[in-house]
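sry for the spam today, last one i promise. struct tokens for design, 459 residues
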């Protein structure tokens, strides 16, 4: 059995925030979310998150995906693990992670579990030219791990050691909880260190292995906004390199932002300053131009998205969108459509091979196939109290500057002439013209303009 403990109870002060550190986002997702997603992919039987400061935010976000332990008073990492009483006496392996160390890769965690099959404790270490304030790995003459010493408690010779502790371990779960109760706070911080377990395991002749991480940034702790930005850049580079290796062209990878949950088809081209957020899916051979934001949406094959927003919606195949269009709130655009510049769709279904080329708003609408929507068309869906639906059936033609006052249906192959404000249904095949009669007053324009000048004292 595989278990995980994630420590997320502390109050970070260097971040200067009212949030728990682990709720700050990298690539559009809280740090704790990245860790939990990866643990779920590893099919860990249960994940136990130790919470304390601002625990409600974490619990609301993760919901019932994990189990919780409360550390009301922060007395160190060892004390935090003691709070996870649910795991006591369970057989299996337990990985210990930190909520503000979110970049650790699934393959690294899997390696820890695999090595723990033949060892009582596995420690993830790194070797640095300048180890700074990290805890040091102390080894015996034969290279065996004897203990971990925190920098503040290290002797001068120990401070010169270059192998450091990343703080990530995998334990035999029964042994972990056997020795937790023996921890003391006899150190400079007056805290219960989980690192003291290493010396206990060694003195009791339990086997200890180490795995050395090659990229120290994979296990960086995020304690301030500078580290947050560095972590975001590291993870984004990792994501972008993956998609380029899968046949996606990124014109400027350093200025392309792709969620860890996104999926992108081969031969798609993404220009700089594009954001693909959440669980978005982009098809093959699609072009996404600069300034586009796609959030939790599906974009099909052979599409062109120009400087537009698509949010919680689906755009199918062979569709052009934009520039500066906004598709949102569960909208669906079928194949071979054109959604043009400054068009907004809200909760609207556009049928096959229709056109809405410019400057229109279609809200709470159903539009059929082969429909033409002219410039400046508005489906007037809100009466101040309730939202109402507009239905435009196949083959209809809606002229420019038309207001359709919902609820309303425009029948198949009907034509609504430009400038109309329509309040009643239009029958199939009808032509509707609704305009006020024109009145011409000869010379009145000049008189009106002169009147304005007199009133302003210009004549």
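last one done:
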């Amino acid at each position: 059995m595989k278990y995980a403990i994630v420590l997320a109870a502390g109050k970070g002060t260097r971040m200067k925030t009212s949030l728990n550190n682990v709720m700050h986002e990298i690539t559009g997702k809280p740090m704790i979310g990245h860790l939990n997603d990866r643990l779920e992919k590893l099919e860990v039987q249960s994940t136990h998150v130790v919470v304390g400061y601002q625990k409600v935010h974490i619990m609301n976000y993760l919901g019932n995906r994990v189990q919780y332990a409360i550390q009301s008073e922060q007395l160190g990492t060892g004390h935090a693990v003691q709070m996870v009483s649910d795991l006591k006496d369970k057989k299996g392996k337990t990985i210990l992670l930190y909520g503000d160390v979110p970049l650790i890769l699934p393959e690294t965690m899997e390696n820890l579990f695999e090595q723990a099959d033949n060892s009582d404790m596995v420690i993830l270490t790194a070797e640095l030219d300048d180890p700074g304030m990290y805890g040091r790995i102390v080894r015996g003459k034969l290279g065996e791990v004897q203990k971990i010493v925190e920098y503040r408690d290290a002797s001068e010779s120990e401070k010169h050691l270059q192998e450091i502790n990343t703080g990530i371990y995998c334990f035999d779960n029964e042994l972990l909880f056997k020795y937790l109760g023996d921890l003391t706070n006899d150190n400079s911080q007056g805290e219960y260190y989980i690192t003291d377990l290493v010396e206990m395991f060694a003195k009791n002749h339990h086997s200890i292995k180490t795995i050395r991480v090659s990229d120290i940034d994979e296990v960086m702790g995020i304690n301030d906004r500078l580290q947050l930005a560095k972590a975001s850049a590291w993870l984004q580079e990792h994501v972008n390199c993956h998609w380029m290796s899968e046949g996606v062209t990124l014109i400027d990878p350093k200025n392309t932002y792709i969620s860890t949950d996104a999926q992108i088809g081969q031969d798609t081209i993404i220009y700089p300053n594009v954001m693909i957020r959440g669980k978005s899916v982009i098809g093959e051979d699609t072009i996404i131009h600069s300034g586009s934001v796609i959030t939790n949406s599906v974009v099909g094959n052979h599409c062109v998205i120009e400087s537009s927003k698509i949010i919680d919606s689906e755009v199918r195949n062979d569709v052009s969108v934009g520039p500066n269009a906004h598709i949102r709130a569960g909208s669906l655009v079928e194949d071979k459509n054109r959604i043009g510049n400054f068009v907004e769709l809200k909760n609207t279904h556009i049928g096959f091979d229709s056109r809405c080329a410019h400057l229109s708003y279609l809200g709470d609408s159903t539009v059929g196939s082969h429909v033409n929507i002219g410039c400046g068309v508005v489906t007037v869906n809100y009466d101040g109290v309730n939202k109402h639906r507009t239905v435009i059936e196949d083959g209809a033609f809606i002229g420019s500057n038309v207001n359709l006052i919902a609820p309303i249906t425009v029948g198949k192959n009907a034509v609504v002439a430009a400038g109309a404000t329509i309040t009643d249904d239009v029958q199939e095949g009808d032509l509707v013209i609704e305009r006020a009669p024109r009145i011409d007053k000869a010379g009145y324009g000049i008189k009106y303009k002169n009147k304005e000048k007199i009133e302003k004292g210009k004549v």
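The radius of gyration is 31 Å. ok im logging off now
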